[in-house]
Specification:
One of its GO terms (molecular function) is structural molecule activity. This protein is 76% helix and 0% strand. The protein has 291 residues and is mainly alpha-helical.
């Protein structure tokens, strides 16, 4: 019979790899945890509810009596799902981070990093995440540096993670992200990591997207499309699946308008939507100028 630490380990991995409902289900088996582990469990469960699009449950259940880590998750739910509250959330984050009593909380710093990364304010994100402290913070640093096109700094963060635990799921994920950014012969290494995940863990849209992006880099767009359609069956609103299907369809010479419409409806602030909208506006202006 699996012990509580085994269940918490499985819950973490499920969350890291995007098996959010599985993480929620696993949490029901976790009892008699230490206070620290209990807070971590609740944090991952509430973040899973945010990820599956149930922010109201998170916002409703986390009141002012809850620990700082959970209050931070509530801010994330408000930020991602109530756009009218973005400025309020950022103001609250700044106040909490400057509070000596709670400002160093790792989950609060992690949420701050995620929010500022969404804001594309990478320097502000790193201000709160760069010191690390948890594997999630190190992994987020890798993501931020890759967003900044600084694979050299991302590699330094990965080496820190490898020194802590080379086999950790987040270390392997970060390694795959870096390999994809570097490209070339590293793409095959990234594919092997995602393949290993698919053999060890429950298949998720995150794993399928990882394998698909590797195949797209290698020019195998038919295989990538097959993987992405499987991912779409798992989650019809997943933004990365829809974005990757748009790109894949264009390479295959197939219509992508349906996927773009879905992405615009479910994730209007997605980077690809913004880029396409900007390109369409520029085209319209050019047409009017010529006319």
């Amino acid at each position: 019979m699996a012990s509580a630490p085994d269940h918490l380990f499985a819950l973490r991995n499920s969350f890291y790899l995007g098996a959010y409902q599985a993480a929620i289900n696993l949490s029901t088996s976790l009892n008699n945890l230490s206070e620290e582990d209990s807070i971590e469990k609740d944090s991952l469960v509430f973040r899973s509810y945010v990820a599956i699009g149930a922010p109201e449950l998170v916002i409703g259940e986390i009141d002012s009596s809850k620990p700082t880590a959970l209050q931070a998750v509530k801010l994330l739910a408000l930020y991602l799902h109530r756009p009218e509250n973005k400025e309020t959330v950022i103001t609250s984050l700044k106040e909490w981070l400057s509070d000596a009593a709670i400002g160093s909380n790792p989950v609060l710093r992690l949420i701050a990093g995620v929010v500022y990364m969404h804001e594309q304010d990478y320097n502000e994100a790193l201000k709160h995440t760069h010191s690390g402290g948890t594997m999630e913070l190190h992994a987020l640093n890798v993501q931020i540096f890759l967003k900044m096109h600084r694979s050299d700094y991302a590699e330094k963060q990965l080496k820190i993670m490898q020194q802590i635990d080379e086999d950790h799921t987040l270390t392997q994920l970060a390694n795959a992200w870096l390999n994809l950014a570097v490209g070339g012969s590293k793409i095959q290494e990234a594919l092997l990591i995602f393949q290993d995940f698919s053999e060890k863990f429950q298949m998720t849209a995150l794993i399928l997207n990882g394998k698909a992006v590797c195949n797209m880099h290698m020019g195998h767009f038919d295989e990538a499309e097959h993987l992405l359609l499987d991912a779409l069956n798992m989650d019809a609103k997943d933004p990365e699946t829809l974005a990757n299907l748009i790109v894949c369809s264009l390479h295959l010479g197939r219509p992508s308008s349906r996927y773009l419409s879905q992405l615009k409806l479910s994730h209007p602030a997605h980077m690809l939507v913004k880029r396409i909208s900007s390109a369409e506006e520029n085209f319209e202006r050019a047409v009017q100028t010529v006319a």
